[in-house]
Amino acid sequence: MVQDQNRPDEKGTFREWLYITVFQSSTVAGKIFDIGLSVLILSNIILLMLESVPSISAKYEPAFQKFDVFFLVIFSGEYLLRLYCVRSAKKYAASFYGVIDLMAILPSYMEFLYPQWHVFMIVRCFRLLRIFRIFRMVRFLDESRILMLALIRGFRKILVFLFFVLLLAIFLGSLMYVVEFQKNSGFNTIPQSIYWAIVTITTVGYGDVAPVTATGKVIASFIMILGYAIIAVPTGILSASVIQEEKRNQGRRCPQCQVAGHDKEAIYCKNCGSKLSEQ
Amino acid sequence: MVQDQNRPDEKGTFREWLYITVFQSSTVAGKIFDIGLSVLILSNIILLMLESVPSISAKYEPAFQKFDVFFLVIFSGEYLLRLYCVRSAKKYAASFYGVIDLMAILPSYMEFLYPQWHVFMIVRCFRLLRIFRIFRMVRFLDESRILMLALIRGFRKILVFLFFVLLLAIFLGSLMYVVEFQKNSGFNTIPQSIYWAIVTITTVGYGDVAPVTATGKVIASFIMILGYAIIAVPTGILSASVIQEEKRNQGRRCPQCQVAGHDKEAIYCKNCGSKLSEQ
Amino acid sequence: MVQDQNRPDEKGTFREWLYITVFQSSTVAGKIFDIGLSVLILSNIILLMLESVPSISAKYEPAFQKFDVFFLVIFSGEYLLRLYCVRSAKKYAASFYGVIDLMAILPSYMEFLYPQWHVFMIVRCFRLLRIFRIFRMVRFLDESRILMLALIRGFRKILVFLFFVLLLAIFLGSLMYVVEFQKNSGFNTIPQSIYWAIVTITTVGYGDVAPVTATGKVIASFIMILGYAIIAVPTGILSASVIQEEKRNQGRRCPQCQVAGHDKEAIYCKNCGSKLSEQ
Amino acid sequence: MVQDQNRPDEKGTFREWLYITVFQSSTVAGKIFDIGLSVLILSNIILLMLESVPSISAKYEPAFQKFDVFFLVIFSGEYLLRLYCVRSAKKYAASFYGVIDLMAILPSYMEFLYPQWHVFMIVRCFRLLRIFRIFRMVRFLDESRILMLALIRGFRKILVFLFFVLLLAIFLGSLMYVVEFQKNSGFNTIPQSIYWAIVTITTVGYGDVAPVTATGKVIASFIMILGYAIIAVPTGILSASVIQEEKRNQGRRCPQCQVAGHDKEAIYCKNCGSKLSEQ
User: Fold this and answer.
1) By CA distance, what is B237's nearest residue in D?
2) What average pLDDT values come out for chain B (279 residues) when binned by 10 residues?
3) Do B122 and B48 form a contact (C-beta atoms < 8 A)?
4) In chain B, is it the N or the C terminus that has fewer CB atoms within a 10 Å radius of its CB?
5) pTM of the predicted model as reported, rounded to 2 decimal places
6) Domains of chain C
């Protein structure tokens, strides 16, 4: 974990206690901090959503402004806290979460100069990722780990597959353009036709654009059945990946971090180093 | 099974016979009772549906009212019967089915005070779950058991996945809001944009809201291909779960309750306790 | 095969040769007969489709009538031929294909009495099933056999699953009816709302009916994500079934009928009886 | 590889060096050539797309014409180069890529005679397939190879499945025609109804055609749930295929062409013949 490398040297100090509280969720204080922060982020997101509804924002404008200031203070304070308690502030500021935390408060400050920046506050929804920290407590970590591994294993295959789909969409879209563009305003440009092809292959099917000519409908039917069949490809790939991960993951669970798949003779958890129970 | 713990002590009495008839389907009387009840519930649901069609309800209003009274009497009687024949009426009333059975008759009584409660009668469709009791007879139990186990095993993974999807929808919806809200009334609020994002990622694609700007269409295409690819994730997870369940489920079948997966040396069914046939 | 039981006793006669030609595709004459018949059925179907297009039928009305008579004569002749060359005409007439063959010619005769029966001629498309006879020749039999077995194995599980989906649709549809029916004409009856729920859970999403209230959209989003997740269930079931079938199907292929999965020590094909090659 | 058979005899000449550069990507020059060509093709496709947008093409008409000439010269030169450096020009011209390369430049020449041929320039998007050459460098070859094998293994099964789906669509479409054609202009012909059935079974659901009668909606619901269930079939098939391929693919990787799955005792790569590393 990147944080541990960034843990302050001096042991037993307030700064180290702060670090453990803010960046980890192993202690009670840490758990409380994480849950409290998640609640704040969630309520902030919900407020931003409601604010975007004209009827509501018109009614409670002043309240919303107060809340914006409140959350700005809270999140700025949290950011400074994090900068303070890590060993190297630079390293944290450059880390993934560091950038997200900064992006979350930046728009509020920019807003004083450019009001239209207000809308970008929604980038805060990225902070919801922190909620995964809590999953650790409710034993979800293992599941998401397997999922991640399966996704990573299947990733390149799925990328090749998506490239194929895109190529197919470009060609079939262009074909439909040639067939329909004189009779159907929905296919009046090639990019538009490709957009339609993607809508169709992925079986989304808005219906805002639909073929009108007989030839177009025949081609469309072919595209649909094609999309219906090839959706099986990524599924097959991921099924294989997940099954392999499952196999790899049979084994003892760590009582501390719930990670499984330790070797039979392992004594300590390979993930968090805590003692494993006998089986 | 919760019912068995709730079985009256005294053996061979009418009350115990009633209990077996009403709560179990092992005896002929029990089978008849279950089938009859299912038929009544089904016909009640169908009646409620027809009643909601203005043209029909206008024509047969009196008949519908008679039927409402009829079903109210029947289901109330059944509820009292259940309360009577269990050992502890409180325990049954607090059980899952007990609550459903009460909810099924409550609206009819509330209706006398507040007519608008009439519509809530539809909660009775929950009672259709009782039909699963009948599956026991037609050997469907085993299949639904494996299904359930597979779902339970895959449940947490799927929950993590759904959380990811929701997070994705929130972010992509907000993004589309920023891109489209000035040109497209369909994206005039963030919740509305998130609704659109969910409609798109899940490949439902109503088309009541669709992007109009070029940028919006590019992002939409990206979202669709994404949704098309990630639908593979829950599928992969469940395929793995089902395959594992299948493996676990190879073995002898109980001639009584059809449950399989007994240990090689088992002599009695671990589910219903009846003697297993040799292999 | 049901036909073989229906094969005439006397060997080497014209009637037996006719039987082999009409009902089997092992001989050259049989292959020619099957292919010719399939071509006729296909062209008949295409004609019926074109006839349903007003602009075309208006132009070529007389030609269509001639073709109707032509195909009536052909198919009637074929039906009589089949009745003649089987051992028991009754048994054939009662068989699956016998009924389809009769249904295919019946509407044309009824048409003389009731012209509106004309439209039912389309039941002939059922006869396309005969085309599967030809797959035998092009080595598709084995694939469709595995597919069938996988479907049969997964059938009951999928039935349970579909029952769940239906139950879900009934409940969620009723819920949406309660939420939307005052503001949205698309949800003015419960059956209509259930129809919408099915359209949504299956991710078809026509968009002819869509929620308008905020509550309705939240519930709809939930339904979509649900449908998105549970589509994984039948897929997982069938993946497991197909994989098991594949395993079962490893083994020698019959050089004659391409059926695989013979026991190691088998000498003759268990399907067509021809000699198996050594491995 | 077809190209190698087409490699010129004389070694070490400029012509052979040219061949290796143009047709292979093992040398640095070859890599540069492939990447450069891919960039040119991509930019050409993007230009053709933009050109199809009336507003843009009106503004930059002269620039587009200049680019058309530029790409015509480039691609014609490349085609002549390929014709020159292969051993037998005829063999290359008849090969898959040879035909595509010709098709890519033909429309530009035809345009001088028939301007309306301009639109067919889009066939150039086929040339994007050359980009797969580059995957070789970034180790994607192996993934696409497994994918291909899985697709080929599952191909015939999927074909049988698609034939079933088509048959189903024809029958259900005709059924809906019989039910709806008098009340609903969307079902006024059988082909149109079949088009609707395909749109529904594949869960695309444009909504441009939707049932209006009660019977029609019931049948439609049935079709949707059916399509929802049978989408599992191709997925199951492909999952099985991919899993088998994965199993087959465990083994050593070739350091040169990244192909895996060599026998334990293999010394040279079975694909490109280069020495394998020990394990």
Assistant:
1) D239
2) 64 84 82 87 88 87 90 91 88 86 86 78 75 58 68 75 84 88 87 92 89 91 86 78 68 56 55 57
3) yes
4) C
5) 0.81
6) 14-135 (1.20.120.350), 144-248 (1.10.287.70)
